[in-house]
User: Which sequence fits this backbone?
């Protein structure tokens, strides 16, 4: 079955822009002269968090990060997925921009991020999690190269952690909710922070351009996937060597020492798929963590990896949309498909076919896809609060859409903000009301 063409309200934009050198030249020319010098501190001191409410006083919700808008929508995590409120995660936007404008190097990277991975837009919220007591939302903000904690009752910044380098990216929260790991994509490092205070617990090195993070073994290990350089037009397979060092780094979550590195290149070659990129994108483990399923750059499908035997065991190729250009330079940040989730029992996988404008539920036993649900540039996939649905973000239509794991059919779709990407389950006080706009 072939998906119908997307009815996106937003025309597809060019995916590639000028080189960083051009951005630097623009930066020097574009930097404004402030009327008053900015005197912002590098880190906002941590405020003492409010006393944690009883667990019974928390309600499960779903957070949707609207990356180009700098807001997070709070929606119901099941059923009709109705919106409950909106949070501004850039209340300090002007302060951050003055800091950037006054630093030509930071401004060059800011413009490079805007015109590269941002497709001409600021990237203002990538990933987010709530604190265990549900009183704050912690979010990574790529264009501001930081992680910030927003008080969910006042909307004010509790703490801010600037990452090393010039861009923050995907995060992961520990099973106990006390630590958050964030990729610093231009410095090849993962920072691990105390989620309540923003203080750095430690960090570890990665391959080039760290991306996805996953806690495993009950929180004893952190897996980081590096994707290499994805913002150039050097996308022909013959130019793959320009993409850099791409591998999985497994770190001990206690000591933050690297315990293993996994390069998928020789493993893919041994399986007979030397044609596939070794840049591991979104990934999910089975509930027993024996199998890892992951997407790679430029591929309409995914790979199955057996953790114990350290081997690729299967590769699933999913349908192409005939309306999708085969020009790789038009695909967002080397993606073709970007976003995976797995049903709670592990029987079904949900795949976001980003550039092919569909999502589908895949039977894990056979790797056969179900119905292709038309979606506009779906960018992420997660699981509903009750485990019944896969929830995708339609970044090209400013919606989130729920697809039944049981039937593979769309069951709900609701509007959200500009360019939704990451979708996460979290918790708020049951009597929560949205804070006033900061």
Assistant:
């Amino acid at each position: 079955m072939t998906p119908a063409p997307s009815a996106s309200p937003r025309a597809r934009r060019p995916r590639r822009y000028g080189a960083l050198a051009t951005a630097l030249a623009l930066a020097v020319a574009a930097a404004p002269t402030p009327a008053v010098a900015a005197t912002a501190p590098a880190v906002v001191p941590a405020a003492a968090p409010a006393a944690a409410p009883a667990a019974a006083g928390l309600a499960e919700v779903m957070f949707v990060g609207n990356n180009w808008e700098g807001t997070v929508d709070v929606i119901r995590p099941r059923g009709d997925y109705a919106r409950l409120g909106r949070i501004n995660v850039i209340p300090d936007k002007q302060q951050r921009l003055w800091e950037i404008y006054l630093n030509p190097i930071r401004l060059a990277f800011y413009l490079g991020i805007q015109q590269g991975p941002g497709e001409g837009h600021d990237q203002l919220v990538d990933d987010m999690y709530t604190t265990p007591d549900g009183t704050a939302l912690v979010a990574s903000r790529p264009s501001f190269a930081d992680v910030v904690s927003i008080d969910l009752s006042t909307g004010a910044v509790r703490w801010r952690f600037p990452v090393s380098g010039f861009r923050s990216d995907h995060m992961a929260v520990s099973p106990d909710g006390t630590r958050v790991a964030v990729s610093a994509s231009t410095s090849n490092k993962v920072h691990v922070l105390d989620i309540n205070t923003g203080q750095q617990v430690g960090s570890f090195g990665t391959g080039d351009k760290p991306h996805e993070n996953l806690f495993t073994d009950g929180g004893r290990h952190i897996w980081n996937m590096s994707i290499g350089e994805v913002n150039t037009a050097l996308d022909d397979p013959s130019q793959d060597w320009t993409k850099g060092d791409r591998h999985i780094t497994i770190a001990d979550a206690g000591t933050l020492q690297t315990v293993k590195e996994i390069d998928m290149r020789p493993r893919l070659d041994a399986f007979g798929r030397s044609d596939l990129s070794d840049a591991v994108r979104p990934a999910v483990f089975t509930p027993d963590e024996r199998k890892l399923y992951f997407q790679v750059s430029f591929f309409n499908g995914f790979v199955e990896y057996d953790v114990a035997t350290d081997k690729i065991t299967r590769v699933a190729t999913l349908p192409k949309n005939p309306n999708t250009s085969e020009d790789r330079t038009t695909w967002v940040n080397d993606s073709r498909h970007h976003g995976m989730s797995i049903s709670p029992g592990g029987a079904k996988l949900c795949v976001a076919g980003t550039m092919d404008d569909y999502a589908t539920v895949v039977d894990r036993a056979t790797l056969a896809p179900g119905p292709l649900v038309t979606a506009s540039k779906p960018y992420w996939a997660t699981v509903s609060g009750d485990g019944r649905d896969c929830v995708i973000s339609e970044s090209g239509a400013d919606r989130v859409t729920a697809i039944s794991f049981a039937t593979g059919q769309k069951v709900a779709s609701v509007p959200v903000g500009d360019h939704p990407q990451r979708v996460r389950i979290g918790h708020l006080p049951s009597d929560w009301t949205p804070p006033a706009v900061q």
